[in-house]
Amino acid sequence: MLQNLTNMVIFVRTELPLYGEYLNWVREGRKVTTIRLRKGAVELPFSSVLPLYETTDFGPGDRSRPTEYVKVSALRYHRWGDLSADDAKRDGFKSYDDMRRALTKIYQHITDEDWVTVYDISLIQSGNGSAR
To answer: Whole-model pTM?
Structure first.
C-alpha cells in the first residue's frame, strides 16, 4: 500500500540519529516529530522503539552506545512541498521558513516533489520504559 502511494522503495530504519540541538528540543517537549528524507525511498521503523544517537554534524554520530531511546507513535508521509506551518511547529521550528531553511541545509538536494517520512516521537525514560 505504501509503495502504491509513494512509488518509492521502503527503507527500514533501525536507529535514529539526531543533531544535538534538535535532541534538546525533544527533551524540552518543543520537538515531537522528526522529518526524514531518504532520496528515492520512504522509511518504516524496525520497531516502535528505536535507539537514538546524538550527532554533532547531522551525520550518523557515535554508534557505540545510544544516547537515549525514542518511541515512535505514528508515521506520516508527505511531499516536502506539502508540509505546513503546523508540521514545522511540531518539528520544533519557530516558523515554516525556519524549517525549510534548516532542513534544506541538511538535505541539500531536496525538492518539493520528494517524499519525506514524518515520525511522531517521544523520549523513553530509563528504567521504567514509560514515555516522557
So the answer is: 0.88
